[in-house]
Design brief:
- The protein is mostly helical.
- It has one domain.
- Helices cover about 65% and strands about 5% of the residues.
- It has ten helices and two strands.
- The protein has a two-stranded antiparallel sheet with strand order 1-2.
- Helix 2 runs parallel beside helix 9.
- The longest helix has 30 residues.
- It is globular, with a radius of gyration of 19 Å.
- Bound molecules: S-adenosylmethionine.
- S-adenosylmethionine binds next to helix 5, helix 8 and helix 9.
- One of its GO terms (molecular function) is methyltransferase activity.
Length: about 240
Amino acid sequence: MGRSITFIYGVVTYVIFLVTFLYSIAFVGNLLVPKSIDSGTQGPVAVSIVINLALLSVFALQHSIMARPAFKRIWMKIIPRAAERSTYILTTCVALILIFVFWQPIPMPVWNLANTLAGSVVSLLFWVGWLIVLSSTFMIDHFDLFGLKQIYANLRTRQATRPGFIKVGLYRLVRHPIMTGFLIAFWAAPVMTIGHLLFAVVTTGYIIIAVLHLEEKDLIAEMGDDYLEYRREVPAFVPGFGRGQ
Ligand SMILES: C[S@@+](CC[C@H](N)C(=O)[O-])C[C@H]1O[C@@H](n2cnc3c(N)ncnc32)[C@H](O)[C@@H]1O
């Protein structure tokens, strides 16, 4: 890939990511979009559960395997180093789009707080969750996270520097604010259906395992004592809940 093509590829990927991110909010929140977590034709519950678990597994496998340093080393022999992050983001979008398209609704309610004060508070929390996700990406390094820094440096015949250890903003309160935001957004449903509950339970389990057992292992290998000390001092997901582990 030439430098200009890599740059265009990264920019197009970023635009696809923005649209996918906005659709994710609407999908989980049942807002304005033709297909959301609780909309569509309902099939047999057992079949729906199997399909939904398969879709979430595809996402989990893509997200976990492609993020590992060993995979990246092999992958970068095939694609340019500068396009690695954009490719990761693009494949993440594909995995998410598969969920949006093929997700099977299971609309029986587990709780229904619609038109109550509690429901309004939960709706507000939903937006707070997404705001935490988005703002945390800027605290860590939004443009590195989504590959723009890498493709821009490459265009200028440079190599982007890795952000290094970060402990700013929400990262002072918890080690994984982006995931805290997702957890809030996924659970804060004024009307919680069986399908949405399945989504929230599986994604919560995946986030805990992927972050504590995979991402942190890589972060310790990359950042050493800085991250080990950070882990001792700062809790993983909930401010004030445990002093790290
Ligand atoms: C999708 S972000 C998620 C970050 C974090 N788990 C969170 O939930 O806010 C994943 C990237 O963040 C990086 N990362 C996570 N914590 C970091 C820290 N304290 N300092 C620098 N980079 C970090 C990882 O190396 C990885 O490239």
